[in-house]
Amino acid sequence: MTQTTKHLFSIAHVLCLVLAFAAAGCVTGDDADTAPSASPLLQLQCPAVVQAWAPQTKYASNDLVTFQGGTFQARPPGHTSQSDWLPPVVPALWLPVTCSNGAPPTTPPPTTTPPPTTTPPPTTTPPPTTPPGGGQCSADGRPGPKFDIAGAKNVGNGNGLQFIGGQCLRASDCASGCCALPCGICSGPGAQFQNGKLGCGFGG
What we know:
Blueprint: H1 3-24, H2 29-33, E1 42-44, E2 50-51, E3 58-59, E4 64-67, E5 70-74, E6 79-80, E7 94-99, E8 106-107, E9 179-180, E10 185-186
Parallel strand pairs: 1-7, 2-8
Antiparallel strand pairs: 3-6, 4-5, 5-7, 9-10
């Protein structure tokens, strides 16, 4: 083989390799558009409300949850969730799906709301019913000492039998001769101004 023949053979060999490489080619832009895409998500008929995923929750097989805008279905046989087993992170537990009837609203897990605390109304302390002097008249509520009810049988008979501390309607009821104001209570003359009494003379 002459030197010229060898040279032509080498050029032909190189051209053949170039053509073979071009025939095998790389994927062009048009070819990339026809390349297979990721498989579509499984479509399900979802309920109107799907609870948001929550940790420490028992999920049965095929339960649906929402998480960060996506919908996921629990794979069999179900499990109890943990804080680091997020649905997008653990495909062995959760299958991403789409809802054929539209994505359900993201509903937060139920929370327990403490009952409102009610403040009881302030209590008012009624004023004491016992005026200065130790009691009140049982006749009309005016200040004065209370009557001794044991002497009720002597009230108003004018027999002078009512003892000190018993009710009187006039001086003639009292053994002491003093029916003290303002209530009408038999009193000793020396004590007619004590304990809220205003002196003898009740009943005229």
